[in-house]
From TrEMBL:
<keyword id="KW-0813">Transport</keyword>
<feature type="binding site" description="axial binding residue">
    <location>
        <position position="142"/>
    </location>
    <ligand>
        <name>heme c</name>
    </ligand>
</feature>
<dbReference type="InterPro" id="IPR002321">
    <property type="entry name" value="Cyt_c_II"/>
</dbReference>
<feature type="binding site" description="covalent">
    <location>
        <position position="138"/>
    </location>
    <ligand>
        <name>heme c</name>
    </ligand>
</feature>
<dbReference type="Pfam" id="PF01322">
    <property type="entry name" value="Cytochrom_C_2"/>
</dbReference>
<dbReference type="InterPro" id="IPR010980">
    <property type="entry name" value="Cyt_c/b562"/>
</dbReference>
<feature type="binding site" description="covalent">
    <location>
        <position position="141"/>
    </location>
    <ligand>
        <name>heme c</name>
    </ligand>
</feature>
<keyword id="KW-0408">Iron</keyword>
<keyword id="KW-0349">Heme</keyword>
<keyword id="KW-0732">Signal</keyword>
<protein>
    <submittedName>
        <fullName>Cytochrome c</fullName>
    </submittedName>
</protein>
<dbReference type="InterPro" id="IPR012127">
    <property type="entry name" value="Cyt_c_prime"/>
</dbReference>
<dbReference type="GO" id="GO:0042597">
    <property type="term" value="C:periplasmic space"/>
</dbReference>
<keyword id="KW-0479">Metal-binding</keyword>
<keyword id="KW-0249">Electron transport</keyword>
<dbReference type="GO" id="GO:0022900">
    <property type="term" value="P:electron transport chain"/>
</dbReference>
<dbReference type="GO" id="GO:0020037">
    <property type="term" value="F:heme binding"/>
</dbReference>
Length: 148
């Protein structure tokens, strides 16, 4: 009896996840970007003086972003998960119409993250200097592929 209850409890989340695969993908994609944003927020806060610069924390945030850039996100861009398909996302259909452009902007972002990783822990000025290109790479994608 306990086994049956335990098995049913394990199956419920699976059934719930399968209920709306489009929303699941949208939420997973948003979660990925929230992780990037949380780490970017640490770096930006330090650069603005809102958070005291801490070399170890800055390096950790940059390294976290570097780790995230190694994640294969292709499944997070399932067709049918744009803002034309769901009011729960700001991902414009242009993403699916221009994958080469998305990849180009993604490559620029990875390069900017790597540049940040190289200097984040070396001092506030070096970290702040790398923040402009990193933020610019984010903005370049947002301006083209994300609804306001």
């Amino acid at each position: 009896m306990r086994f049956a209850i335990f098995a049913a409890a394990l199956a419920l989340p699976t059934v719930a996840l399968a209920a709306d695969p489009v929303q699941d993908v949208v939420e997973a994609r948003q979660g990925f970007y929230k992780l990037l944003g949380a780490n970017m927020g640490v770096l930006a806060g330090m650069a603005k003086g809102e958070i005291e610069y801490d070399a170890a924390a800055a390096q950790t945030a940059a390294d976290n972003m570097g780790t995230l850039t190694m994640y294969n996100m292709s499944h997070l861009f399932m067709p049918g998960t744009s803002s034309a398909d769901s009011d729960k996302t700001r991902a414009l259909p242009a993403i699916w119409e221009d994958f080469p452009g998305v990849q180009e902007k993604g490559t620029a972002f990875v390069g900017a993250v790597q540049a940040m990783q190289a200097v984040a822990g070396a001092g506030k000025d070096q970290m702040a200097g790398a923040l402009g290109p990193l933020g610019g790479s984010c903005k370049g994608c947002h301006d083209t592929y994300r609804a306001k």
